[in-house]
């Protein structure tokens, strides 16, 4: 299967803008936003939030922030050729002082999304759009859908944690660097416009809870939206699980989606299925849970698994390319989403069965004599699923996990991460994730605080992620499995405001090779998939 990659051999990163602007007049835009028409009717060819990224003819959006107002950068935006500023009453004076005509609105963040859709020609209306939300599974499902479509020859793209990539109608692959799971609205509509320009037919994207609260995905009415699950994460932003849920639920309204696919394995999903304001189809993987589509027991096949799905039209068989119940759920979700946008049949099922591997998601970097796995699991639930899956693999010895928790993020989940690791692994190496601005040792202490006294696990507190991975490789014996959890396919580590090069996959592979060489067994090391 050939798909867009992220190697050094791929096309260089492209801008998140179409090559030819659709554009809109200031009066046309004011009418769409319900704002007062400006005195000067200027032509707007683009839109951006970043004063440093302004191009001549852009609408520059100056938003209020937590610590300062974006309008303080009005002179920079004007100097780069902004044609107009969109801002609130608090930002108007500074923008006008910089010589910019102003379109004043009460909620500039929401208006930014609407403006971006208008200026880019409402590109979402000319694509089949799939949106996936949930704590876990978003990247796996978007990747599976996109790779399946590409295998079938359908020009398709995806937007999410791993960036943006797509294949155009002529077979060319494109990669666009994006920072957030769901890009800011100007960037998002620019990406969609570029895909329309290149005759892409389907785009699948991750829709984060932050995006819903901050209006990043406004202006897109998804043909179908999917909810995977809800477990503790991002409470540093939302405050409570109820607020976190409400942000997810907002996607399942007529303003944002036409139809929904909802996993009802947890209470949040069952509640969403009742409260959604659009038609929904439900699916489940847990025994005894009622749903429109139910996955039966899965049996191992290679590194993946095969399972039957019982639905309104009878029973069908699907294959998950990776092991574990959560990948059964992801595969079933992808199948239902594809069917909803009109892609079904034996060819689709066959392609989907090979399409579920995602860099950094249960990625095998070594098979023998020690199995090495890297996974993005950075929440208690995701870590529990990963460890449970690996514990169930046949012919496995001990299970070693290298894990930690990110700094400047939800602190409440740290002790729970430690508890899960010690309950399910034989050896727990607590080390540094992305400490960001926090003291790494303090983060580790909080993770370790969740490990009960008298645990049967062998526990190590290791300063330095590279050292933690090396220790795991040193301690592992033949047939043991090492899981390096938390960062997945990330290629950098954020420490004290600096991103340093760091790839768990390379570090684990190298550490296993060094350990094997030290034991005289280098010739027996088989690299993974």
TrEMBL record:
The subcellular location is: Cytoplasm
- Where is this chain primarily localised? cytoplasm
Q: Which GO terms describe its biological process?
A: cell division; cell wall organization; peptidoglycan biosynthetic process; regulation of cell shape
Q: What is its EC number?
A: 6.3.2.13
The motif Meso-diaminopimelate recognition motif: which residues? 433-436
**Entry protein name:** UDP-N-acetylmuramoyl-L-alanyl-D-glutamate--2,6-diaminopimelate ligase
Q: Which gene encodes it?
A: murE
The known PTMs are summarized as: Carboxylation is probably crucial for Mg(2+) binding and, consequently, for the gamma-phosphate positioning of ATP.
* Pathway in which the depicted protein is active: Cell wall biogenesis; peptidoglycan biosynthesis
Q: Where is the Mur ligase central domain?
A: 132-334
